[in-house]
């Protein structure tokens, strides 16, 4: 008798129990996967920024404190800086009642492509953006959320400035988890001038450094340039900037981690419960098998294999389920203000595989303790107990 | 007290139709201690279940204590059992989470008696079977013989007219078996109850008034009990169906 | 007649391991759900509890929050004398002009967050009557003084009373701590409006104002008048409405959490059903006996349902008893849990398990107990006594 068919058939002996246990484990694993996409999304987001040579420059007092626009030229002149671009927060909303649903910035059209070259925005898109004053570069996440396509004209009302502007979408920023909306600073300045406001500030400056080794030196130099001026600056790598920017999510992530651990523990208990039930019922036949001459180690491995097989198959189903559920989540919501980069809900291959391993180990673990006792118990003791 | 007329019981197992009982007619007068005997597969347990109202015949009529069981619904049957029957099973079937006294009280929960009254009756029943001092013990703390005696106490606590037992000594050693059979005898002798047991225990013959024989679902007739050394008999060959009103042919 | 309550309860105690594991499963689901739910509830509670029903908030038209609005000085000077605004004993209108800026503050571990700093005039305390100075004193204008919300005091570095704190472009002297019954003012820092305007280089010294409406006055008329005034482009709305709108941002989160709770609940139902089926299977002879003795199908059904509901109830109690202190402990250890606020700053909340969260957990446990136990209880009650006894 081959090993695996035997183990599989044992699971089929009590179909209802195997289904119920499998169902419970599948749902719990699905839950674990969905929960883990959140901090995983955050880590992934930061990881992607780790290797680039982009640095951010902002007013030391805070992002809300602006810097003179003139700083941009001076940053560009620092040796080692390939190019620099300014960002100014527009705070645009598609529907005023919904508020801001994605971040929008006025940027310098000529430099944005160079400083953010790693985003791999299509050259034609950049060209359109540069040559059309009302052009807009929009992140894929936002395009999906609103069903926009290149060429569409969209209007945003600013909740921060007394402006309502129309834009023509030049193309996408090709990243699944990117909600950003960029448009020309010139367009922005002109609209403000028409309102009688002359605007010579910038919210943030991003600069690309040519050599990774030079990054710390460039940052020091930039800050030194503006020390003791009205707007002192703090430079940091892009990764560090976003780590800080979303830093307040740490608490939420901690709760997610705790909840994930609790659910995992739950799975162990469910699996252990079933394993012990199955073992208890089969005490008699195990005693008989041992009397016939099967070694307890073989019986033990069989029992554990059963628990592990059930658990792993259920885990696979659960992980698959989480793929479907997160797909629905992504379709239903775009960038979420509260969650930020936690809202990607992407079950990566790594997460999927980890889920399978997790369910496998839980199966082994839950099968070991009850099985160990049962298969080692002496034949005589068992038969005495049963007959 | 108990009357069966042309009772048959068949059921399907897979593609086959199994005939557990074939046109059995017999009568058990009140106050008799009767044993149903026969080889394994003879249908004696099926017969017991039907006369006890635990199962319904496929054909024929069953009357117990003057009532036609066919007239009763599921729930009425349950109430009937509660009022007129006491059950003793091979594996004692005590509820493991209840003490001896609580097990004995169980049937009384279906009546409207108050707690104190229930307890008094349970204690009386335990005294009759000689286990008054074990009233608070759990089944797990009692020996096989003691458990069966508690079961008998439970069977008589409502003072039913009929006590029914399915292999009551099947799981007991010789000494305990004799004790239990003696108790069952006392129920008939001292309390006038009608006692019907299914058994393949040869010792039982010495205690019963009459032995009814079954083979392959057919009633083979009866012989008187109380005979020492007699072995469980083979009835007259062929399917001799006794006419209603008689106690069965003598061998 | 029904089986006594002792029967299901003692049967549960009899199978200690199986019962214990199932109770643990329900408890874990309850803890996980309650913590998560409490997180979002605490956030929502903080936001919704903010604001006084008698106050109006006046912002630039089209601006959705304090931080992105501007209020011209002459507008303030005119509006404060409008009819319907309460006057204090000295005859001053209870109108509080305020400037909102969000500078960086630093966590003890070096983390950086935006905090809402509100530049106020002394009248602010009278207008925001839910705010109380609980330690130290209120700030005095133009002295570079700051009053910290309780949440801020606990969360960031350098917040000792009497000490100096650096934020914005200068240092400030911490002179007091304020509390506001857990509302979002506790996540703010109050300073003098002019000090702040100078530091943040704001030409317009105020971003908006709050006014207290006199009782008996026509609030809607006042709102209309402010909105219709053609000299400026302003709008007024009740303070509570303004904050309630911000609380809506928590709604999506709620949806997510409830969805996850449902998933977990269904899993627990499967687990409970499994346990109960096994219990029925192990007690087939027992059930047959009870039925033979004359107990009705309904009484058997009821007894088994009680067992599964008891498991779920025990799990609920254990779960809530663990979740409540756990939430507080986690939230304390982290210095409060931070959430991004609509005002581009941080809302510091304490993870507190509230009555609503317990109610949801209880509903979940009830569903688990009933849904999980029903099918097995039905099977138990419909066992045929004859077959059941045969199996024994």
Describe this structure in words.
The complex is a heterotrimer of chains A (about 375), B (about 250) and C (about 400). Chain A has 14 helices and 12 strands. Chain A is of the alpha+beta class and about 375 residues long. Chain A has 2 domains: about 5-45 and about 250-385, no CATH class; about 60-230, no CATH class. Chain A is elongated and about 95 Å long. The relative contact order of chain A is 0.18. The model of chain A has no long low-confidence stretch (mean pLDDT about 85). By secondary structure, chain B is an alpha/beta fold. Chain B has one domain: P-loop containing nucleotide triphosphate hydrolases (Rossmann fold, 3-Layer(aba) Sandwich). In chain B, strands 6-7-8-3-9-10 form a 6-stranded mixed β-sheet, with helices on both faces. A 4-stranded antiparallel β-sheet of chain B has the order 2-1-4-5, covered by helices on one side. The model of chain B is unreliable at about 225-250 (pLDDT under 50). By secondary structure, chain C is of the alpha+beta class. Chain C has 2 domains: about 5-50 and about 250-390, no CATH class; about 60-230, no CATH class. Chain C has 13 helices and 14 strands. The two termini of chain C are about 25 Å apart. Classes of the chains: A alpha+beta (about 375), B alpha/beta (about 250), C alpha+beta (about 400). Chains in contact: A-C, B-C. At the A-C interface, helix 2 and helix 10 of A face helix 2, strand 4, helix 9, helix 11 and strand 13 of C.
If you average the pLDDT of chain C, what whole number results?
A: 90
The SS-based structural class of chain B is: alpha/beta
Number of helices of chain B: 6
- Per CATH, the class of chain B reads Alpha Beta
Number of extended strands of chain B: 10
Series of secondary-structure elements of chain B, N-terminal to C-terminal? EEEHEEHEHHHEHEEE
Strand content of chain B: 25-35%
Instruction: Report the β-strand fraction of chain C as a percent range.
Output: 15-25%
Q: How would you classify the helix and strand content of chain C by structural class?
A: alpha+beta
Contiguous runs where pLDDT drops below 50 for at least 5 residues of chain B: 227-251
Compute the separation of the termini of chain B in Å.
24 Å
Radius of gyration of chain C: 29 Å
Major pleated sheet of chain B:
6 strands, mixed
How many domains, in number, for the residues of chain B? 1
